Amino acid sequence: MISVEQHLDRILSTVTVIPPFELGVLDAQGCILAADVQARGSLPGFTNSAMDGYAVHASDIATASAESPVTLPVVNDIAAGNTKPWSLASGQTMRIMTGAPMPHGADAVVPVEATDGGVVRVQIRERRSVGAHVREVGEDVEAGNVVLRRGTLLGPGQIALLAAAGIARVRVVPRPRVVVISTGDELVEVGRTPGFGQIVDSNSVMLTAAVTAVGATPFRVGGVPDDARTLMETLEGQLVRADAIITTGGVSMGAFDTVKEVLSRVGTMRFDKVAMRPGMPQGFGVLGDERVPVFTLPGNPVSALVSFHVFVAPALRAMAGRPEPSYPPGYVPAVAAEPFGSVEGKMEFVRVILDDDRARLAGGQGSHMLGALAAADALAVIPEDVTEVAAGDELMCLPLLGREGM
Amino acid sequence: MISVEQHLDRILSTVTVIPPFELGVLDAQGCILAADVQARGSLPGFTNSAMDGYAVHASDIATASAESPVTLPVVNDIAAGNTKPWSLASGQTMRIMTGAPMPHGADAVVPVEATDGGVVRVQIRERRSVGAHVREVGEDVEAGNVVLRRGTLLGPGQIALLAAAGIARVRVVPRPRVVVISTGDELVEVGRTPGFGQIVDSNSVMLTAAVTAVGATPFRVGGVPDDARTLMETLEGQLVRADAIITTGGVSMGAFDTVKEVLSRVGTMRFDKVAMRPGMPQGFGVLGDERVPVFTLPGNPVSALVSFHVFVAPALRAMAGRPEPSYPPGYVPAVAAEPFGSVEGKMEFVRVILDDDRARLAGGQGSHMLGALAAADALAVIPEDVTEVAAGDELMCLPLLGREGM
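^ inputs. structure came back:
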């Protein structure tokens, strides 16, 4: 029997960051930058107006006030998108829109609100200093400078900055492609009615959803019967598109545990009893020339989802180049709302409903109990040496993926 | 000038929950159930073994102990997926695997660890009570009972429960389909090099990413020139696939503000100055027979992203049938790490970097400053009546979407 930490350490010391790949900036959403990115162009790319108003020589309106406005001729309109460079002579103005290029010579903008809005001549009622409402070329970003560092997570603001700085494609750590396979002669596909002795393959849809929720890309193979040859062929066939493979079932003490039987022949695979409940029978190793990580999770659905949260999700984050966050989906503190027992010598993952930070049991805790699992918000993590939790005790909880919502 | 709350109230009292739609369970990930769902079958669907071991009549092994084991003949193997109903006579055992159907007459399972693992006859070293390691039909979920209530967010566990209970398709509130349009003659498409007076259309990629980050489905139209007819035709053409439309640009005080010009003719659209910085010029209304909500956001990128967080994201959540969460992406508390000023009479959204709960300025706060925006984790929300924030002051922060990561 090994500890949860030992099994996780073995996994995290085996998996490696996926080799970088070039993607379009929008497709790179949620990915980690694999290299520093330099701006192709400056931002702004040309000196422009920050307001709708009038471009002026500030010295021409130095005396302007509400009581004694300055009137200037309006010799041009400059709209955003105007691609012609203009020049503004002293004693004149040009009407200018937000984002439009400043005419050469002009050094300030008077907002339209400080004028009479005239189109032939304009009465200016307030003075403005040199530089007022002017955005200087390069004041946000200078061409050639690093705009985003390697390791940055690309969200909406980062993608906008890249696009604006002239970057259409970036090298990122791609989302891990994760093949999801269930094993068992008892499985029927979702939508079919199981006969006596059969069950719907809910594990592969659950783990496919979990892979999506963690930000990776799932490929659901679905159910494979308990046949060594079929399973091996399936695994070999999927290796080509997999950064990782997850199987469920066939790793326990049974006489027909095909996953264990097939993969035990592979050198790097190791099957262990891990001191946890649920989820004791775990297997992990790498497969093929590319050393694709394979997680063989137990077949009970609650065990499988707990194993995913505890072992697979951290591994996928590491493969995606992310630092493990301290905040969701990391552990969060809570308080037990009711007493419950816990088995000694095993780390127990108790399905709980969180009401703010108060955690109550989500119902039946059997490892086959999907009803209670579906009611839960989080897993309360009870250490090996704790056998009794009293109401009011502090707990660490692992929020269930895909429950935070939009 | 209206307040942020007034504008948001108007939006939230106008938008409605999108009509329910039937989706496959996996496609419904992240959606809200539109109706209670009843189980088609029971869970478990048949009484089965919770362990790999031996099915017995508990009365036959009542005296079993390590010192005085009970030996019984093994008359059959029952694997998971065995679809034949067997019967177990008293005085006999059958080897049984986890999830395999219990033979008629058997009332307990002895785990293989408590035996010698025999295949012809087995020595049983521990007694087990009636019901031990047996999962009774329907003990998790009974056929016909409600398994998930209307309003439930579908994550991995919920999807697994639905699939297991025989549900392949569910009525949910679909993800809002959101059309994203930028306006302006100055825009060039991502990947093209802007000429003098031009900029890359970064707003539409930013807001497309933001729509994705909030869990809705974006359709990026991209840049549309400042031409009333083109804009109106684009809007009309997109209405058919839109649950909402977002535009950027053309809503300020400019002489060529096409969005304002075109949509002002439409009865329900209203353009307001909202007491906020950045993001003052806002427009909102509904368009077409389907009363599609239209958000006309300002064209400065920082203003656009702030407006998305403050007005559009809550509206999309409401349209998706979600209760507004109190937890991400809601407001979180933080402490100012440094002093900064704030304009009086406007709610200010300051781009900050969070180091745990300590918030420091992310750099230049101009509404065109993408560099500082891309460095930020959150928007610190400074109320209208606050003009000075001191180091150590408590702040409320709105985390930026898509920055939490995997």
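Residues 45 and 71 of chain A are 32 Å apart (CA to CA). Chain A touches chain B through 119 residues (CB under 8 Å).
thumbs up if we can close this ticket
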